[in-house]
Amino acid sequence: MLYDISLKITYGYEVPVSGGRHLVRVMPATLTGRQRLVVGSLSCQPMPAERSESVDFFANPFTAILFRSAHDDLVIRMQARVQVEPLPLTADFSADLSRLPADLAACWSVDPDAPHHFVGPSPLLAEVPEIADYARALVTPGMTIRQIATAICARIHRDFVYDAEATTVNTTAAEAFALKRGVCQDFTHVMIVALRSLGIPAGYVSGFLRTIPPAGKERLEGADAMHAWVRIWCGTTAGWLELDPTNNIPAGTDHIVVGHGRDYGDVAPVIGVLKSYGGQKTEQAVDVIPVT
How far apart are CA 68 and CA 255, in angstroms? Predict the structure, then answer.
């Protein structure tokens, strides 16, 4: 599938800010065998005093921008064309839960994609006993990692309500679990904590969803803004699997990846600091249009 993607993020400041420094992670990635960034552009208004491009530890590209002069608002625009390849359908070669520790011990890599980075707690995701109990209740002897992940994904989708007003970007996984409602970030964080509580490596995927569904199919939840879903390491043979708990589906050609990390903090679209003392409002608009 070939997509044209446009994103507009607007920050309105209650009091003009006198400067700021931000990291922007919104450009779709090029991933071998998965997707290719054909062309992309990122612009800011006002123009930053300094701008540079780099790659973080998890191999996610980002743009660093610096402002020295006062400004009332900030508008970030991204446009891209991306080619997304279908993920192959394979049999379940994932390890069972009892064999996973041996697979982890046999993996000596500490590369960005190594499962060891995604096993324990991460900066935004502490252990939550209630979520651990929730996950354990779904596991029966002999289940493979893929079966466990699929069961947890389906259960979260069934038990949680998509509600854009219920949570904020700072809502913890424990708070979202207690509410049983939230947005894709909350669904994803709860699922990651559930999987890690079982010793299964799991990470956060930031990206986009197709905004116009194919004929005869329903529109996916979370398509109006940047989306999030889960990566699960299924053992040495099977490798990584991606599931979308917000929609209870495997990631496919409707999912366009921007970056991978341990939790939202590793792949937040915009992070940084400002010289200001007032509040701010943020708006985000996304279009992911198939190219015919």
Answer: 37
Residue 213 pLDDT > 80? no
Token pair recorded at residue 250: 């495997």
Distance CA 64, CA 218 (A): 37
Instruction: Give the distance, in angstroms, between the CA of residue 62 and the centroid of all CA atoms in the same chain.
Output: 15
Structure tokens at 28: 């779709």
In this prediction the pTM is: 0.95
Which distant-in-sequence residues (6+ apart) come within 8 Å of 98 by Cβ? Answer: none
Answer yes or no: are the C-beta atoms of 68 and 48 closer than 8 Å: no
CA distance 190 to 162: 13
| Among 168, 118, 147, 160, residue whose Cα is nearest residue 245 | 160
pLDDT tens column, 53-99: 999 999 999 999 999 999 999 999 999 999 999 887 778 889 899 99
First to last CA, the chain: 9
Q: Report the SS3 class of residue 61.
A: strand
Which one-letter amino acid corresponds to residue 178? A
